[in-house]
Structure formats: structure tokens, C-alpha cells
């Protein structure tokens, strides 16, 4: 019996495992998912929880999501040996595989920014909201905030959901207006790039919104360190940005099992990401290995929407490989980012490797789709391996 091992039970891994289980004969192919965590969080809720637009109970136990016939191993992966086709576990026995799907996602490392851990754990004005606990804490901090500088920064590393810092910034500005304290708050976001959003025509539409609402964007800012005692962010070029309430995006990297415990990322520019063919999602050296989502080096935006499309490509191509057929499924780089601009309004940015897809239009319908509809679709369809939306 062939054995497919899926490393990671995040969005990409869970979807891929469930699609594979549905497509392949359970008498001929065994599917195993490995993850050190048992709780699967709806990460798009992390920038909505602080404003009360989604309630905190946005997680499921992995056993609720995986189809019957998918084995779950609750353990940490420490090494992957693609030559021996083995996965080494921290506590259990090594697992052998015939085919491997890598979906390990990003590793958040707040210690990579000097002062961030201390500022978060010891103070009451710094909340790195990509962490669930910080998103919860930011909710109370916003309620108690009565004026000053609200600051959002981004790290030099790639990040999952590059639109999330913009969404948090715009929702915060709108929140301050609704509370009647907007005149007492300066709203600033930084990024170590020329623009706050990488894809046109959404970038220009966002600039118009930010100019109209007096949201300041500081370009080409590389965060060097945080001084929590002074309430100051120091940039690499010597600039100092003061804050009264600060929501930094944590630096993000590849998982150590990939970067240090396997050769799968050796071909990437920085050694952080599994190297794959950007269309087939197949590893560029090991034919029996596929990767998807935030852990690989295809030039797409790192969003659940991208992983959702890749999961079907990976499953289709793995099915073809198992059946000794040519790989025919191709991922076109599709990604989507609902850009929530204020309470009740959102713009949907959709794009692929070549071009933008949707128009840069704000609407109430887009808000309803993202806040009221998508969480249910995510849990009940996408994570189960079904895709009712185009």
C-alpha cells in the first residue's frame, strides 16, 4: 500500500489531505497528517477579533476537520530525509512515505526583532496581532485607548496575508472615528518597500482611501529594534517612530524542520522555502514531493486563498503520479485578499501570476462575504476538501 504523508495541518495541509482521501482508494493508499498542534485556527479572524467583528471562538480541533480514513499523528517533525523517504518525529518513530506533501506554513519568531518579546510580555501597549493571544489582548487595549500614535509595522521577511496589516490599519482608523477620538489619534503604517500593497489597480485605490482618511504610510522602513521603555521603534537607517499603541507584524520564516532538517529548501534564494515548480507544485528535484501554501517559493501571495487553489492541483497531480500518469493540473498563481476598508465596506483584490482579476470596488456585499459568509465556507467546505466558490 502506498503511503502519502502530509506535514502540516494548516489550511493547505488539511485541504490537500481531505481531497486526497476522497480521490484515492483507501485500500490502495494510506494518508497520514502530522502536526505538533491539535487546534486549527481561522487566522483571518486575527485582525477582526480586536474590533469585535468576529468573536474569539474561531478554532477547531483537527479531528473535526480531517475525513474518516485520514490518520492524524500529533507530533513535531524534526527532519525530512528525501533520499531515504523518511520523516523524523520528535517523540515517535520515524515514518516512511512513498509520497510527501509539505504544508508547514510560516514560523512566527518575535525574538527576531530585538525588544519585541519584552514589549509584548511586560508592557501594555504592544500587541503583535499575528499571534492569537495578542489579537485577544489588543481588543481590550483598543477599548482603553484614548489618543496618541497608533502604529503598525511590518518585518523585512515575507509574511502570510500581506494585506492583513493594511486591513488592521484601516479598521483601526475607522474604529477611532466611530469612537469619536479620531482627531486625537495619528495612524501610521510602515513597510520596507516602496508601496503598501504590491498589486495594481488595488494599490492606487488604497492610496486614495488613505489620503482621504489621513492614514500615513512610511515606505522603506526596516524595523531594527523596539525600545519599550521609551515607546519608540528604531529603524535600520536611524529613524525613530514613537508609539502609544503598537501592532507590529512578527518576523516570519520557514519551519526549522525544512530549513535545518532537510535539503528541500536548499535551492531557494534564502534557504527558507521549499523549491517547487510554480505551476505543478512538485519539488524541483524530488518528484514524489509536493509543497503548497506559505512554506514554498512559488511567486504568489501567501494567503489561504492561494493554498485553497494549490490543494486541488497537488491532489490532482499526486493522483496522476500514483496512477503513473502525466501531471496535468496547473496552478496559475491565483490569490485573493479581501481588503476591509472600514466597518461594512471591503474591496476584493484577486490576482494571479499574470494580472489582476477583480475590480477595485468597495462594497457592503464584499464585507458580508468576508465576515459573514467565508468563515462558514472555510470550515464546512474548503477545509473538508470541497470548493463551492470559483
TrEMBL record:
Molecular function per GO: FAD binding; sulfide:quinone oxidoreductase activity
Protein's GO biological process: sulfide oxidation, using sulfide:quinone oxidoreductase
FAD/NAD(P)-binding domain location: 3-119
Pfam family, one: Pyr_redox_2
Gene3D superfamilies: FAD/NAD(P)-binding domain
Alphabetical list of InterPro entries matching this protein: FAD/NAD-bd_sf (IPR036188), FAD/NAD-binding_dom (IPR023753), Sulphide_quinone_reductase (IPR015904)
Annotated protein name in UniProt: FAD-dependent pyridine nucleotide-disulfideoxidoreductase
Lineage of the species this protein comes from: Archaea, Methanobacteriati, Methanobacteriota, Stenosarchaea group, Halobacteria
